[in-house]
Amino acid sequence: PRGWTALPEDSGVSDDGSDGGVFFDRGVPASSWSLTVSRADGTDALRVTTVPAEALGGRVRIAATDHGVQEGARSFAIAAHAQGAAIELSTFDPIDLSRETNGDNLLLATVRRDARIARPLSMSVRCDGEPCGAAVPIAEFGELAEGEWQTLGVPLKCFRAAGADMARISSPFRLMADGDAGLSIARVALGSLSDADAIADCPTR
């Protein structure tokens, strides 16, 4: 598989667009946001409010793990499932990310690979609670060194190139697996190139 794209010294993003919003931090969603686990098509969803928890009949196990502070992240152990599994952050009030997308911002996920990821993961967004745009393959998740926290950046332009309407985003983070996978997530937020340890290789326009 191809390695990650090397990061330039200059992010090329102005200070005005580098802060962005924080959707998930220290193991919990931000105010007005929800963490859910569902099938890849969005059915059989479980809103994760306490841990440990199980979703999809026990095929996804969610637990607390440490990052920065005790229980500052959530781990997800996903067993192979015919209809796949999705980890999602969502809100009832869609947000407009068109300015951030034009400003070359990224969706940043601070993650750790805990076990083998059998098949490449993919990411997508939702618009007004509905699917919008194609899923974007993110092979880089499988290339993470096991047990090591890193911040992976996915350019917002990847989602726009896949057909998403970035002006009405209700789920800016939707990570999908269709095979065995083990990973932990500590933080999901918007940011700039300089905030990422590595950037996903995906088409943009």
Unreliably modeled segments: 6-20
Give the count of helical stretches: 3
* Estimated structural class: mainly beta
Fraction of residues in β-strands: over 45%
Oligomer: single chain
Q: Tell the overall outline.
A: globular
Under the CATH scheme, which architecture would be assigned?
A: Sandwich
Distance between the termini: 23 Å
Give the total of beta strands: 15
Q: What is the CATH topology?
A: Jelly Rolls
User: What is the chain-wise order of helices and strands?
Assistant: EEEEEEEEHEEEHEHEEE
Major sheet summary line: 9 strands, mixed
| Fraction of helical residues | under 10%
Give a structural overview.
The protein is mostly beta strands. It has one domain: Galactose-binding lectin (Jelly Rolls, Sandwich), CATH 2.60.120. Helix content is 7%, strand content 46%. It has 3 helices and 15 strands. Strands 1, 2, 5, 6, 7, 9, 12, 14 and 15 form a 9-stranded mixed sheet that branches. Strands 4-3-8-13-10-11 form a 6-stranded antiparallel sheet. The longest helix is centred in the C-terminal third of the chain and has 6 residues. The chain is globular, with a radius of gyration of 16 Å. About 7% of the residues have low confidence.
Concise structural overview:
With 205 residues, the chain is mainly beta. It is 7% helix and 46% strand.
Keywords:
205 residues; mainly beta; Jelly Rolls; nine-stranded mixed beta sheet; six-stranded antiparallel beta sheet; globular
Fold topology:
Elements: E1 22-25, E2 28-29, E3 34-38, E4 46-47, E5 53-55, E6 60-67, E7 69-78, E8 85-90, H1 98-102, E9 106-115, E10 121-127, E11 130-138, H2 140-143, E12 149-155, H3 156-161, E13 169-177, E14 181-191, E15 198-199
Parallel strand pairs: 12-15
Antiparallel strand pairs: 1-2, 1-14, 3-4, 3-8, 5-6, 6-7, 7-14, 8-13, 9-12, 9-14, 10-11, 10-13
